[in-house]
Design goal:
DNA-binding; homodimer; Tetracycline Repressor, domain 2
Chain lengths: ~210, ~210
DNA sequence: GTGTCAATATTGACACTGTCAATATAACAC
DNA sequence: GTGTTATATTGACAGTGTCAATATTGACAC
């Protein structure tokens, strides 16, 4: 397979890799101006292609968004994986905290993308999206189960624990992206610090 | 003020209370078919008014959505208030848990409305929305501060604790609405039970 | 190579949307 | 009443998602 630059792809009649190009440029437009500003026609134009070419690769706009969301879950999963693989934190609990931070950091670095991932898409209508999001959750469940096996975490149902941690991290991400925590978070460092604080609270409990 | 039925309002040239009618019918459409299906023109038609009448009360569609979101935060606040006032739970910690459950229950009963509240609206562009959402958060902060004063919760910064609890409840709500927790939650009772379980985990900690 | 076919892209059309400008109607102050 | 203001209507426009019909290309059989 000859590797073409994006500009080369655009110049040909048969684009060659339009589907991936649309995903890439769509994600780009998303981060530039948000979901509301993402139109199929502008996207096609940016890809150097007629306004109906995307329909060869996606049955409708929502399917494109679902594919973008799916890719987002993959990227998020990779971010979590690399946090888990980071040798900076030999203690597995610290590694869990670092993983949570990487989750929130990912969300804040790609707010529009993240919003599509948890937006009004009907999950059940897109089996690939559903499978990918489940895979991402599975990563967290595995981490939790390992921490239970090593005696670090309570031996309650791992799905309960994973759901709790996930809810906390997702909730913080969404609240920060929606800007509902006023005059509190100013820098990304603040957000990372807050996510660590929250995870420690979660781990040790809130009761006096 | 003569109280008119909704149908009476619709039949008059000068509607009389179009703004509130649009909010009510808009919320109705939202719950029927989701954000994507909410169009200003269909809404105007349902209100029995020309397609441009809404512009007398909202500068654009997004402002309408912001007003609907604002109203959502008010309703959510009322739900939390009445959970706090519920005499069924004399123990303040149990009352906190019940309040959390009422939060999640509200979200699951009005999924589309809830999604608009945390959707891609630019919070800063709508001061009223911002103020109302802050008021809702303030309720939670007050509850937490009272529980600290009575010695039930740790004396760490109350905003930290409130943010943690809120993140957990919002995260669970959003994940359930987006249907990302597969084959786990089948009934609303399940969701309420899960939210209580999560809050108890949060209160007592996850560590072994 | 040539011919055929399926994949891919284009053109043109349509209904629908949000929004603007100009106009009409009603309510109200004086 | 008269005039002013708030409210609603009509008509227009560009932009959107999507459909149907058509054109172009690349691949593969022969």
């Amino acid at each position: 397979m000859t590797t073409l630059t994006l500009d080369e792809k655009i110049s040909k009649y048969h684009h060659g890799d339009l589907r991936n190009t649309l995903l890439a440029l769509g994600t780009e437009m998303l981060s530039e101006a948000g979901v509301a500003a993402l139109s199929l026609r502008k996207l096609a134009q940016r890809a150097g292609v007629s306004h109906n070419a995307p329909y060869q690769h996606f049955p409708d706009k929502e399917s494109l968004l679902a594919a973008i969301a799916e890719q987002g879950f993959r990227l998020l999963g990779e971010a979590m994986d690399s946090a888990q693989a980071n040798p900076t934190y030999p203690d597995p609990i610290e590694r869990l905290i670092a993983t949570g931070q990487s989750y929130v950091t990912f969300a804040l670095n790609h707010p529009a993308h993240y919003q599509v991932m948890f937006g009004p898409l009907n999950n059940d209508a897109y089996p690939d999206l559903k499978a990918t999001s489940h895979d991402t959750l599975a990563k967290l469940i595995n981490i939790v189960a390992a921490l239970q096996a090593s005696g670090h975490l309570r031996p309650t149902p791992p799905l309960d624990l994973a759901a709790t941690i996930w809810s906390c991290m997702h909730g913080l991400s969404a609240i920060l992206i929606a800007n509902k925590l006023p005059d509190y978070i100013r820098t990304q460092r603040d957000a990372a610090a807050l996510s660590a604080t929250m995870l420690r609270h979660l781990l040790t409990g809130l009761l006096a």
